[in-house]
Design a protein that fits this description.
The chain is of the alpha/beta class. About 50% of the residues lie in helices and about 15% in strands. It has a single domain, classed as Oxidized Rhodanese, domain 1, CATH 3.40.250.10.
Length: about 200
């Protein structure tokens, strides 16, 4: 591994540890573990899919790229309301965002709202996923454009602070005004998490 790759991976791991430590009640699933499980599923097609990946990022972020097979938070909530037993008994719901803070907040909310005890996890983020892609020889280890379903090497990383993707990917982030707006929105999510914790 070259020094830039090592530096970015190290920065990414430190951010993951920092944000995921805020959610000790929500297990972390690493992107490498996720991909290994997906490979096992591909090789033994009779095995049911174990994880239901849920992208909790904004529409602007998801428009750049998503992890293949993931659904939006709105899609999950529709599934949970229309057929909660199927989702609850078949899958571990795995939320993801850039690194894991917003997805940790949403995982905690979903756990409480839909009684997902033991059936919820927080992925180490789409940025970590880029590093896992570069380590995997799995054909499907990539990101996709959600409209065309074509492989893409672009990934939205929220802001410059989180720009630690694998060097084979190109980072996109919010403009300063959009980043401020998104930060305010995340602040409201965090306040909601505190309020829910007290009720």
């Amino acid at each position: 591994m070259n020094s830039i790759k090592i530096k970015k991976l190290d920065q990414c791991q430190k951010l993951v540890e920092h944000y995921h430590s805020k959610f000790p009640d929500i297990p972390t699933l690493t992107s490498l573990a996720y991909l290994e499980r997906e490979i096992a599923n591909d090789e033994a097609s009779e095995k049911p899919k174990r994880y239901l990946l849920v992208d909790v990022r904004s529409e602007a972020e998801m428009a750049v790229s998503m992890i293949p097979g993931s659904i939006t938070l709105n899609e999950l909530e529709s599934k949970m309301k229309s057929n909660p037993k199927e989702v609850n008994s078949s899958f571990t719901v795995v939320t993801y965002c850039t690194i894991g803070y917003r997805s940790g907040l949403e995982a905690r909310r979903l756990k409480k709202e839909f009684n997902l005890n033991g059936r919820i996890a927080n992925l180490d983020g789409i940025v970590s996923y880029t590093h896992a892609c570069s380590c995997s020889d799995r054909e499907g280890a990539n990101l996709v454009d959600p409209v065309t379903k074509q492989t893409t090497k672009e990934v939205h990383v929220f802001g410059e602070k989180w720009d630690c993707t694998d060097e084979s990917f190109r980072s996109v982030f919010f403009s300063k005004p959009a980043g401020i707006w998104e930060s305010v929105r995340v602040g409201f999510l965090a306040i909601g998490d505190v309020v829910r914790g007290r009720t």
